[in-house]
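Hi everyone, sorry if this is the wrong subforum. Our group has a chain we'd like a structural model of before ordering constructs, and none of us has done structure prediction before. Sequence below.
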Amino acid sequence: MTVKLDIRKVESHENTEFYISAVPDQNAPIKEQAAQMFNAITDSLNTENAHVLQERIFTHDSALQNVSDIRSQAYGPLDDGVPPTILLCNQGLNGPFAGIQIHAIRSEKKPQVIKLHEKPCGRLFKTTGREYLTLSNISAQDPDSNTKQARKMLEKAETALNLLDADFLNVARTWMWLGNILSWYDDFNHVRNEFFTERGVIGTPHRQYMPASTGIGLKPPGNPICAMDLVAVLEPEDSIEFLPAVGKQQCALEYGSAFSRASKAVTPAAVTVFVSGTAAIDATGATTNIENPAGQINDTVENVRAVLKDMKCSDQDVVQAVAYCKNTDVEKIFHQYRKKLSWPWLTIVCDICRPELLFEIEVTAVIRQ
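Answer:
Right subforum, don't worry. Here is the predicted structure as tokens:
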């Protein structure tokens, strides 16, 4: 087996960003898959003298222990103590281990580990005129209800931001990992809307500060029903462009979800476009091509490409892409479609936020300077 390791490099005169997507090449034994993937990542990071800014691992629960153990063995000194975000998905065509996604940096300066309550939870990277923060796997315990847990999760992320004199107005992109999403997504939206309104993230109709976001049916291992990742720009101040309505879709807040369709932000080596999780939803907020996987895939890709076009990005500017498929039947159909685009795909099998939705995409693209 040869691991599929896609590395997209973005360079400035001072820093180089690396976007790494790793997927198993075939349905090999899990230990073999994990060893080859993590060893390939380790070799690449060491060769480039790069350091991880954010890392996500998508795996079925049955492979979790092997994946975690082999990662620790492979990384060695590369492990700075910040745990990766591990997300439990359904088994897909490649087996129980779906893939790894990493954002890394090469610079004269190393990322600084951020701790909350003495536990590493993210990294801050400072360079000339720029401060870029990642927080990963932020979760909270509350046995009483999912909504209380979600509220505490948001408050915990806010506490970490406050440690750096920042708040949610500095946040360009969030990922909301929601176990059993179909049973409580409306409730989650209510919690987020309330929190964002209190914090001024939901502003006036003419000025919104809602981050780009993905809300998807994945959960962290263990007891938490939800967790979140985010990226924030601390410097330059007020430099994030939030795009509540862009491409072919209107503002998601009109049907109750507090996120922008995309955001544009300064990252260590470029200006980056974060395209939110996007599905086959039309301008009125209605699902299109119900019970038609191929139609939903086509509509979704068209919606994402419309955003990229508005942002003056081409297919070659996409540095990371994730396709979320409702089941392996949808995944099989998508695997025929994906050949049309040279994006660095990870394909994850999980629930989407509406029962009738079969497919969703998120992408990150760079505007090269």
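For your construct planning: The CA atoms of residues 12 and 212 lie 24 Å apart. The chain has a mean pLDDT of 95.
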